[in-house]
Design brief:
Structural class: alpha+beta
Radius of gyration: 13 Å
CATH class: Alpha Beta
Shape: globular
Helix content: 10-25%
Oligomer: single chain
């Protein structure tokens, strides 16, 4: 996972904002995609829907990542798009539900779930 994700923080903290191609959290601004797992916040490679690849979701294959995760949350940008078939398969093989929504809705859902002590494996594309 270290090769795929650059860690930004070692705990999943609330997201305070998004837009302008970035996310705001813990007095930081992070430009680009964001992945939130039980081990913290990470830079996520893709910045657009067209750049998303199966290998970007590779952390879901790791049992230690899936522990404590309730479902997969994918914020797919400014417009809602259907998930690619390989992502549906990957989530099913990991034994996790999958929710795909706009990034704004995904940020709100992540914050709500985090407040409820439920943590989705969260993958967020930035929006302008």
């Amino acid at each position: 996972m270290a090769a795929l994700l650059e860690q930004l923080l070692n705990e999943p903290v609330p997201l305070k904002g998004y837009g302008g191609g970035a996310f705001r959290f813990a007095d930081q601004r992070h430009a680009g995609g964001l992945c939130i797992l039980p081990g913290g916040l990470h830079h996520w490679r893709p910045a657009t829907w067209e750049e998303v690849r199966e290998e970007d979701f590779a952390p879901l294959a790791q049992a230690e990542v899936r522990q404590g995760v309730d479902f997969v949350l994918f914020g797919c940008g400014a417009a809602h798009l259907p998930p690619p078939p390989w992502l549906l398969r990957m989530a099913a093989l990991a034994g996790l539900g999958l929710e795909v929504m706009t990034t704004g809705a995904a940020v709100r859902t992540y914050n709500l779930c985090r407040d409820e002590l439920r943590l989705p494996a969260t993958f967020l594309l930035p929006v302008e």
